[in-house]
Write a structure and sequence with these properties.
Blueprint: H1 3-15, H2 22-25, E1 28-35, H3 41-53, E2 67-73, H4 85-92, E3 107-115, E4 128-136, H5 152-164, H6 166-180, H7 190-209, H8 218-221, H9 248-270, E5 277-282, H10 284-290, H11 292-307, H12 315-321, E6 327-332, H13 343-357, E7 367-372, E8 380-386, E9 389-397, E10 404-407, H14 417-424, H15 459-467
Parallel strand pairs: 1-4, 1-5, 5-6, 6-7
Antiparallel strand pairs: 2-3, 3-4, 8-9, 9-10
The structure holds guanosine-5'-diphosphate (GDP) and magnesium ion.
Length: about 475
């Protein structure tokens, strides 16, 4: 164990009274797994754990031959629910496999790996144990970070102009009509306040379903156990000339501040601040499938998410967390939707999406990587001759119809600008020569003889980046 790791462990023992001095000897690595809802967090964590417990499908994890044991531990934090690994695995691995149910809150699981040096070192060094705490939390919660810097008036103005923009105006119609009919400077009436907050939430949900990513406040979409609480009963309002406390505006302003102080800040302080390494899952294919407006929105949401990882640039965050995430992996998920010959284009697209958002200088300290992966491979590849040319296909069972089909989902361009430029220019459809159709596939039936690890694409590369150097 290097000196840096020792001091890190000491710091952790001091700031976490529940853990004993044992952590000095057995280091804990906290890995955050995030991404917007449906990005693939639950399936990713389930697959990561299954493939670390049974490593027969993990050749890319270099320390694999040295791992002598892998086991799950009791959940170390009393205040965070345990990640329901067994339940999710059973969903994927049952005779009638189905995707696990979606979750909307934070959860955690501890996996421990025991390694034994081989060769000359064997006998000189004893086995060592690394505890890996995997923390699953919604990327939507990171979208709330910019709120900490904003006043209620600024946030309202920004949200209103976003909702009135052509891409979203139709989705926001119901809420905006209700807003027209209300008087921000008038006396607070709770039923009216609730109706406004509800129609605003309905708009955010509609925007999310339509493929938009930038839908803050995060807890409005994923309230966890806060559903219906006053801290979530507000919405943007135009500022009246005079702000009085007993008015609708005054009340919403107060609740906005309470939301920041009691919900957003504690999340960053108590959970986010303790993360050592991070994987950000991005459903880039889903956004491409949904069209240029969804891609542009994803790009904007990613820049907001990225601000969370550069505390140096963000005064409020430095004050709350103090320390930095040391490694960040960005992964385009569900890569089994396309033939592997297209994976470089998918990773390239993700890199381009990110490079717009991050500027090199501010990334000093954190090492990053982008790759495309599938946590659970639902398709097989196939090639066929079509009009004299070889065509790459993927075969799987469609979610919608249950039919087993082989299809060509479309070609991703080698130059990501061909997607990003129309998206930035506000196109509402892809140019004529670009077509994508990426239907959802059902999880595959796995035979009983199959090993316990799940079939995947590049999960071993992801694991190597996240934990390889610690083993
Ligand atoms: N084909 C395929 N689909 C996936 C994969 N991972 C996730 N999905 C799909 O994406 C959906 C959302 O995944 P989930 O892990 O629940 O997302 P979360 O909301 O981020 O936790 C799943 O129900 C699947 O339909 C994958 O590796 N391959
Ligand atoms: Mg989930």
């Amino acid at each position: 164990m290097g000196l840096a790791e020792i001091t890190d462990s000491i710091a952790r023992v001091i700031d976490d009274t529940q853990s004993g001095a044992k952590e000095l000897l057995e280091p804990v690595l906290r890995i955050g797994v995030t991404g917007l809802s449906r990005a693939g967090k639950t399936v990713f964590i389930t697959s990561l754990i299954a493939n670390l417990l049974d490593r027969s499908r993990m050749p890319g994890l270099k320390a694999n031959p040295h791992i002598s044991a892998a086991f799950l531990q009791p959940q170390p934090d009393d205040t965070i629910p345990r990640f329901a690994y067994e339940q999710h695995l059973q969903a994927l691995n049952s005779p009638a496999p189905h995707w696990p149910e979606s979750t909307s809150s934070i959860s955690q699981l501890r996996l421990s790996l025991r390694t034994q040096p081989t060769g000359l070192l064997r006998g000189l060094k004893g086995p060592k144990t690394l505890h890996i705490d995997i923390v699953d939390y919604p990327g939507e919660w990171l979208l709330d970070l910019p709120l900490l810097k904003q006043s209620y008036a600024d946030w309202s103005a920004e949200s209103l102009s976003q909702a009135r923009a052509p891409a979203r105006a139709e989705l926001a119609e119901g809420w905006l009509a209700r807003l027209e009919a209300s008087d921000p400077g008038g006396a607070l009436e709770e039923p009216q306040a609730q109706a406004l907050a509800e129609s605003f939430t309905a708009y955010l949900q509609a925007a999310r379903s339509a493929g938009f990513s930038n839908c803050a406040p995060g807890r409005f979409l994923l309230p966890g156990d806060l559903k219906g609480s006053p801290a979530l009963t507000f919405a943007p309002l135009p500022r009246p000339d005079k702000v009085r406390s007993k008015t609708l505006y005054g009340a919403f302003q107060r609740r906005f501040e309470a939301y920041k102080k009691q919900i957003v800040k504690p999340f960053f302080r108590d959970h986010f601040a303790k993360i050592d390494r991070q994987i950000v899952l991005v459903d880039a294919l889903g956004a491409i499938h949904n069209g240029p407006e969804a891609v542009e929105d994803l790009r904007l949401a990613l820049s907001d998410i990225l601000t969370s990882f550069r505390p140096g640039k963000n005064h409020i965050l430095s004050m709350i967390t103090g320390r930095k995430v040391e490694k960040i992996l960005f992964a385009a998920t569900k890569a089994d939707h396309i033939h592997h010959s297209q994976h470089p284009q998918l990773s390239g697209f993700l890199e381009a999406l990110l490079s717009d958002a991050k500027d090199a200088a501010s990334w000093k300290g954190a090492s990053t990587q982008a790759l495309s992966l599938a946590a659970m491979r639902a398709t097989v590849e196939q090639s066929t001759k079509h009009e004299g040319e070889m065509l790459d296909l993927v075969r799987g069972i469609l979610m919608e119809s249950g039919k087993n089909v082989a299809l060509h989902p479309g070609d991703l361009p080698a130059d990501p600008a061909r997607l990003l430029t129309p998206a930035k220019q506000g196109a509402s459809e892809w140019p004529d020569n670009i077509h994508y159709n990426l239907p959802a596939f059902a999880p595959p039936k796995t035979g009983i003889e199959a090993p316990k690890g799940l079939a995947h694409i590049r999960m071993d590369k992801a694991a190597e980046f996240l934990i390889g150097d610690k083993l």
